[in-house]
Amino acid sequence: MAHEDHKEIVQEIKGNMPDADTLFDLADFFKVFGDSTRIRIMCALFERELSVCCIADIVGMEQSTVSHQLRILRQENLVKVRRDGKQSYYSLEDEHIQKIFEMGLEHILE
Amino acid sequence: MAHEDHKEIVQEIKGNMPDADTLFDLADFFKVFGDSTRIRIMCALFERELSVCCIADIVGMEQSTVSHQLRILRQENLVKVRRDGKQSYYSLEDEHIQKIFEMGLEHILE
DNA sequence: TGAACATATGAACAATTATTCATATATTAT
DNA sequence: ATAATATATGAATAATTGTTCATATGTTCA
Question: How much is the pTM?
Fold first, then answer.
């Protein structure tokens, strides 16, 4: 236990928090931003849609690696795919992503 | 290799991207948001500053676990500490954090 | 000074995750 | 159909990371 109003504070805060499931999902969402390969992939996609092999060359990693990471980005609805012949072209799902990206950048550049 | 304008596109995008170091730091920053325990701790701190033992009770984890996670939050300048007698009171460093949090929440609630 | 309490930290363990290799699937052109 | 190319995926491995236990540090009060 602890100081005087411990119990009351705990109850108050617990009552006002979003439910655990939501926060769990939120953590999963941010987890996607927490890897430098994925961050670089997303960053590349800010400019335009790109094929998998272009992305691989841009980030300097194996095509396989990029494919795996793109799947993760797809699962969290951060990117969408378009097939055109042999290529798959990936692009960002919406603009939230760039905004969150920029806010993070703001924070670390302080 | 790949389709026609592959090389040009790769060069163009590579030229416009922030340098790798910055993106690495950015990923590290978001990594902090990518754990449900830390997310819950931050969420609790939106309301007010809290002692370590309060936080431990709110998130339902060991004091030790919370202390370790608070250190990580401190290292990334997301929280600050204030000593008052035996207790350490933690609070959020700035408002970026809540904004980023809310944007993430917006995204997953779609 | 010593007891009691709050917090911090090191070591160990379990679990998760990123990457690569090898290979499968899909598409196009010959 | 076969060859060539682009992408996707499964298995294996290495590395990272979250949690806990045990204990150290710091603070107050008797």
Answer: 0.92
B65 CA → D27 C1’, Å? 21
List all nucleotides in chain D with at least one atom under 7 A from a protein Cβ.
5-11, 17-23, 26-28
Interface contact B57-A24, CB threshold 8 A: no
* CB distance B92 to B79 below 8 Å: yes
Q: Express each pLDDT in B36-61 by its tens digit.
A: 999 999 999 999 999 999 999 999 99
Secondary structure letter of residue A35 according to DSSP: -
Give the burial class of A98: count Cβ atoms within 10 A of its Cβ; 0-12 exposed, 13-18 middle, 19 or more buried: middle
Q: Where are the beta strands (DSSP E) in A1-110?
A: 50-51, 79-84, 87-92
Q: Which residue numbers in chain A have pLDDT < 50?
A: none
Mutate to test the interface with B, among A13, A86, A90 (most CBs of B within 10 A): A13
Residue A19, both tokens? 């439910």
Mean pLDDT score, B8-21? 94
How many Cβ atoms from other residues are within 10 Å of residue B3's Cβ?
13
B72/B42 Cα distance (integer angstroms): 12
